[in-house]
């Protein structure tokens, strides 16, 4: 059985972060491991507290995993601050981590900040180049490339700009744009569009975490990058179509119905 590691923050309400990743990896019938970068006190209505793990303890968790069980793919989510980013970058290079999918998490669906402002440049310099695929949503892509994205054509321009800092694939998620949920992958200078109708479901807490860990699962199974994104897009669309409704705010996905 392939092993997938998630390096991310904990969401105590179970919708995003480590919890969403472990559910996704398990539904893909793979073995899940986790390195926790931060504890968050959050639920479907907001993020109420963040407690970062020390960089040394993040390093210790990574050492324990890589000295014992080598992951076939790695998903990186919330990384919180520059020191945590630096340590993850060093360790992934030391242990030659493969199939790295980086979700540059900055702000939660409910609005809470999950990455310090001054950490964006460090993320771009130290982690983004190591990734097989990065998966920014529209606001994250705007923060990384420095201009506003209002159209599918702007998504294309942003992907091209990001290809100068990203190692390989760039997937810009269109979930935050108007009426469609079209995602654009730029991989090996080729464009792939993954088009889906926008589902009228306000419960999108954890969609980004789930999509990136599903891509990591598919890479671990040996699929190509474009095929991994296609399968992950089907997974997320299936989970959204279930119209699961938990909590008082922007609710989570139902992983039990993502693959039928
Ligand atoms: N209402 C929707 N209908 C269909 N697909 C959606 C919808 N909202 C998001 N998606 C899809 O879900 C995936 C995640 O995109 P999104 O832009 O929501 O990520 P995100 O903002 O990083 O998520 P989060 O921060 O909530 O974890 C993308 O494939 C996107 O197209
Ligand atoms: C821990 C964590 N990671 C990522 C997100 C983004 O959805 C979130 N809300 N919480």
UniProtKB/TrEMBL annotation:
GO cellular component terms, alphabetically, are: cytosol
What EC designation does it have? 2.7.1.49, 2.7.4.7
GO molecular function ontology, one term from the record: ATP binding
State the InterPro entries in the record. HMP/HMP-P_kinase_dom (IPR004399), PM/HMP-P_kinase-1 (IPR013749), Ribokinase-like (IPR029056)
Q: Which residues form the Pyridoxamine kinase/Phosphomethylpyrimidine kinase domain?
A: 11-254
- PANTHER family, alphabetized: HYDROXYMETHYLPYRIMIDINE_PHOSPHOMETHYLPYRIMIDINE KINASE THI20-RELATED (PTHR20858:SF17), PHOSPHOMETHYLPYRIMIDINE KINASE (PTHR20858)
The name this protein carries in UniProt is: Hydroxymethylpyrimidine/phosphomethylpyrimidine kinase
């Amino acid at each position: 059985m392939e092993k997938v590691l998630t390096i991310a923050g904990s969401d105590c309400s179970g919708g995003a972060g480590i919890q969403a990743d472990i559910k996704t990896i398990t539904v893909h019938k793979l073995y899940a491991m986790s390195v926790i970068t931060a504890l968050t006190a959050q639920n479907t209505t907001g993020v109420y507290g963040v407690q970062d793990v020390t960089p040394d303890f993040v390093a210790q968790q990574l050492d324990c995993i890589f000295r014992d069980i080598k992951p076939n793919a790695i998903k990186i989510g919330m990384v919180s601050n520059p020191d945590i980013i630096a340590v993850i970058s060093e360790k992934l290079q030391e242990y030659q981590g493969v199939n790295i999918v980086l979700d540059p998490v900055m702000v939660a669906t409910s609005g809470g900040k999950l990455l310090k402002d001054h950490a964006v440049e460090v993320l771009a310099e130290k982690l983004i180049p190591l990734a097989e695929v990065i998966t920014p949503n529209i606001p994250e892509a705007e923060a990384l490339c420095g201009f506003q994205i209002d159209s599918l054509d702007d998504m294309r321009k942003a992907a091209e700009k990001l290809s100068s800092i990203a190692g390989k694939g760039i997937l810009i998620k269109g979930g935050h744009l108007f009426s469609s949920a079209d995602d654009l992958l730029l991989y090996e200078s080729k464009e792939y569009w993954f088009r889906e109708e926008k589902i009228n479901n306000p419960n999108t807490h954890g969609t980004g975490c789930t999509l990136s860990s599903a891509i990591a699962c598919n890479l671990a199974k040996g699929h190509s990058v474009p095929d991994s994104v296609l399968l992950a897009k089907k997974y997320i669309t299936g989970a959204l179509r279930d119209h699961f409704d938990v909590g008082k705010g922007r609710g989570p996905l139902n992983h039990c119905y993502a693959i039928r």
